[in-house]
Write a structure and sequence with these properties.
By secondary structure, the chain is α/β, with parallel strands linked by helices. Helices cover about 35% and strands about 20% of the residues. Among the domains are: about 250 residues, Rossmann fold; about 140 residues, 2-Layer Sandwich (GMP Synthetase, Chain A, domain 3). The chain contains 22 helices and 26 strands. The strands form eight sheets. Strands 16, 17, 19, 20 and 21 form a five-stranded antiparallel beta sheet that branches. The chain has a four-stranded mixed beta sheet with strand order 4-3-11-10. The protein has a four-stranded mixed beta sheet with strand order 12-13-14-15. It holds the Pfam family AMP-binding.
Length: about 650
């Protein structure tokens, strides 16, 4: 456990409470958590201090559209953004809002989003993010539940409001302004800024959730400040410290805590944040123009990058694809008679697995082969951080090798202010894990007897519990739900983890996602989905069973390139949709699932007996996944009920 230190011993079960394992924290915090920065008491102070230290640095940038074409990025400095945020803050106060009021922000990431957020931070107004993928019903729920008094939205959404609707709104004393109109509302007024404490709430961030209404997570100034300090220490300890010259691409929703805290960290260092144009099809072009140094992503985005690279390599002809694959994964022993060839062709992946640093493992391969991949990401990316959901291990390994950048897997929840664990650079043994804790929290496992997870076993497994200032202050207006998950200062995440020998954490299951088959066997379905997700021929899988059936079935999103390649090799014709209907294709995928099941020594009842191949990825449009790509199991069941019934009838 070299990457963590033990700070409290575990204890046996007592008084109706399950046993808990030892409490650990990051080895980078062995001498204590990062000390507070003098004068840094609120999120607004992060911005204010950056303006004082880096007034002329580029802060927020967007691509200028000229004659319908996107040009270079144009920038506003920290000083210029401060001036705009001051004006917006005064205008908000002129509408009667004050400290503790609620302000909604509804739209895609853009400079105005951050400017409005900083205006709210300055005046102690709760920022309440909203986003389209929640659905109209959820947006209405949040507006009412949070009692939002003012809302900022994209210009294009205002254009959708009809004159009749504007007239109807005016009956209720609601006013609609353009951004420029609102900027000048309080030109002759200057409002004093209230005193802000670390314990004050700065944002109510609603989680999409897989069932029920969204929950309003109360996040304090202390939570964000503490996380920024912890991540900053982590980066310094692994020699990847942020500098004012760093550049970040903002495209993950600011309505999620992941992107929000990353941007706070960039502002803390006076670095630059460039915004995408809001179209996923144009994201790679935006990245190429901005040339970011740090890139955050969710697995779905990295899946697309992986698939795109695979397709590009396959279309490059025999010589190019062979050279790429040799550089990536060929293992060639080095002998005296072939020393030169051995040095060139002993693959980068092989050397990294043996402990070589990514920038030293294969300099020639990097320059001749992999530099093209790096150029595709702008040419300057040195760290790629994946979060929000597990990243497939084969994709993580692949990207660590070919991007010439550190690819790190992180874990965190809105309730823990995003960052709780992150894997470390040049540690290939951490692939498939989320790494050790960040150096500002304590972590322990709590046993879950009904799932046979023992936090005190030789291989410690249990529910991940987190303690520290990053933990949220509670669910807004839901003390009942708060008491369920915040117990004696520990936040119970609901995720099942397993400590690895080096002190990194592996997410293996979800506490609530357990059901019983008709013969009485308990199935930990997320654990199975993680195992079956190792199959490179599939992009996503939903495993289903219930107490009336004796076996499991699954709906699978096959990998298009993999399925088409298999079909071509086996003389099977048809487009992707037709292949998904082909019985032989289903047999192939089922065989691949069974193969990994045997490798991982799954029990007989844990094997999939029938599959449906779904060519359309699980998406938010059909309400099958959350905005952070978690599966909505009740909705999946409702959507595929007919197919499930048919699979069970056919398989019996």
């Amino acid at each position: 456990m070299q990457h963590v230190v033990e700070v409290e011993q575990g204890r046996a079960a007592a008084d109706g409470r399950p046993s808990v394992g030892p409490t650990y924290r990051s080895a980078f915090a062995g001498d204590g958590f990062p000390p507070p920065v003098p004068g840094l008491d609120s999120c607004y102070d992060i911005f204010r201090m950056a303006v004082e230290k880096f007034p002329d640095n580029k802060m927020l940038g967007h691509r200028e559209i000229v004659d319908g074409k996107a040009g270079a990025y144009v920038w506003k400095t920290y000083k210029e953004v401060f001036g705009l945020a001051t004006k917006i803050g005064n205008s908000i106060r002129s509408r009667g809002l004050s400290k503790g009021s609620r302000c909604g922000i509804y739209g895609a990431n853009c400079p105005e989003w951050i400017i409005t957020m900083e205006a709210c931070n300055a005046h102690g107004i709760y920022c309440v993010p909203l986003y389209d993928t929640l659905g109209a019903g959820a947006v209405e729920f949040i507006l009412c539940h949070a009692e939002v008094e003012i809302a900022f939205t994209e210009e294009k959404k205002i254009e959708q409001v009809t004159q009749e609707q504007k007239e109807e709104a005016s009956k209720y004393e609601l006013e609609i302004y353009s951004w420029d109109e609102f900027l000048s509302l309080a030109d002759d007024q200057e409002f004093d800024l209230p005193v802000k404490a670390k314990t004050d709430i700065c944002t109510i961030m609603y989680t999409s959730g897989t069932t029920g209404d969204p929950k309003g997570v109360l996040i304090s100034n202390a939570s964000i400040i503490c996380l920024v300090a912890g991540v900053d220490r982590l980066l310094n300890c692994v020699n990847e410290q942020l500098e004012q010259t760093d550049v970040y691409m903002s495209y993950l929703p600011l309505a999620h805590i992941f992107d929000r805290v990353v941007e706070e960290l960039f502002m803390f260092h006076g670095a630059s944040i460039g915004f995408w144009r809001g179209d996923v099809k144009l994201l790679v072009e935006d990245i190429g123009t901005l040339k970011p140094t740090i890139l955050c992503a969710v697995p779905r985005v990295l899946d697309r990058i992986f698939s795109g690279l695979q397709a590009k390599i396959a279309s490059g002809g025999f010589i190019k694809s062979t050279l790429f694959n040799l550089a990536y994964k060929l293992i060639s022993p080095v002998t005296k008679s072939s020393m030169t060839l051995g040095i060139i062709f002993c693959s980068k992946q092989f050397r990294m697995m043996k402990g070589a640093k990514h920038n030293e493992a294969a300099a020639i391969c990097d320059k001749v082969v992999f530099s093209k991949v790096k150029e595709g990401l702008g040419g300057n990316v040195r760290v790629i951080l994946s979060g929000a959901a597990p990243l497939a291990t084969h994709i993580e390994e692949y990207l660590r090798v070919v991007t010439c950048a550190h690819v790190l897997q992180g874990y965190g929840l809105t309730e823990t202010c995003a960052g709780s664990f992150v894997s470390l650079p040049n540690q290939m043994c951490m692939i498939g894990t989320v790494g050790p804790p960040v150096p500002n929290i304590d972590v322990r496992l709590e046993s879950v007897p009904e799932m046979n997870y023992d936090a005190l076993a030789t291989r410690p497994r249990g529910e991940i519990c987190i303690r520290g200032e990053t933990v949220f202050s509670g669910y807004y207006k839901r003390e009942d739900l708060t008491k369920d998950v915040l117990i004696d200062g520990w936040f119970h995440t609901g995720d099942i983890g397993e400590w690895q020998p080096d002190g990194s954490m592996k997410i293996i299951d979800r506490k609530k996602n357990i059901f019983k088959l008709s013969q009485g066997e308990y199935v930990a379905v997320e654990n199975l989905e993680n195992i079956y997700g190792l199959v490179s021929a599939i992009d996503s899988i939903w495993v289903y069973g219930n107490s009336f059936e004796s076996f499991l079935i699954a709906v699978v999103n096959p990998n298009k390139e993999a399925l088409e390649s298999w079909a071509a090799a086996n003389g099977i014709s048809g487009d992707f949709e037709a292949l998904c209907e082909n019985p032989k294709a289903k047999e192939y995928i089922l065989g691949e699932l069974s193969k990994v099941g045997k490798e991982k020594k799954l029990k007989g009842f844990e094997f999939i007996k029938a599959v449906h191949l779904e060519p359309v990825p699980f998406d938010m449009d059909r309400d099958l996944i959350t905005p952070t790509y978690k599966k909505k199991r009740p909705q999946l069941l409702n959507y595929y009920q007919g197919i499930i019934d048919k699979m069970y009838r056919s398989a019996k």
